[in-house]
Design a protein that fits this description.
single chain, mainly beta, 7-stranded antiparallel β-sheet, about 0% helix
Length: about 200
């Protein structure tokens, strides 16, 4: 049965990052000035004027830590993606020492939050994310105990563990779109057109 993330995990949320990658730009449309800095331009492969291509090696968009990312509490992250190739884990969005959202080598969608120095994750069945097809994917955690993964409007993974609030995005690596914050690992291979991040409303 298809369910809405917002209907199932519904604390009051505030949009703090919204990137629309037209012509390679990463201006923040949320009003919080969390602009992205694009590193390493990808060449070749599938391209789209309304998306940024990630090469699977070093391409990423970095958002520096900021007051609006300092304390998340709850988190909802959504992205419009086209995966060209699997392999290692492919990062969609990761907030350093806060949360991670990615596609696994078997096509499973996965996400997690850092709680009490341990990553707690939720993962879909294999093959939930198709290759070479535009899809909307999302991860929501309510800051208490409930996490959901969706592809389109369909819930593909759930977790109910009392973890408490999500920490903020930390220095020195900040928020990274398309790559693991710590280095050129787990880099996305394909296109990302748009990214949204919400936190618990203050």
């Amino acid at each position: 049965m298809a369910l809405s993330v917002t209907a199932s995990v519904a604390p009051p949320l505030e949009l703090v990052v919204h990137h629309r990658y037209r012509d390679g730009t990463a201006h923040d449309l949320s009003g919080h000035a969390n602009d992205g800095h694009r590193l390493a331009v990808a060449e070749g492969g599938h391209s789209d004027d309304d998306a940024t291509r990630f090469d699977g090696r070093s391409t990423r968009v970095v958002v520096l830590p900021s007051p609006s990312l300092d304390r998340l509490g709850a988190v909802r992250v959504r992205a419009r993606i086209l995966v060209e190739e699997l392999g290692d884990r492919r990062t969609i969005v990761e907030g350093y020492l806060a949360f991670a959202f990615a596609v696994e080598a078997d096509g499973a969608l996965t996400a997690g939050v850092l709680s009490h120095f341990r990553w707690r994750t939720v993962t879909s069945p294999p093959g939930a994310v198709p290759l070479n097809q535009w899809v909307d994917v999302a991860f929501a955690y309510d800051g208490r105990d409930t996490a959901l993964l969706t592809v389109g409007t369909t819930v593909v993974g759930t977790s109910y563990v009392p973890l408490g609030p999500v920490a903020g995005v930390q220095w020195p690596y900040g928020l990274n779109v398309g790559a693991w914050p710590d280095g050129d690992l787990r880099v996305f291979k394909g296109n990302i057109a748009e990214v949204w991040l919400w936190r618990l409303a203050t």
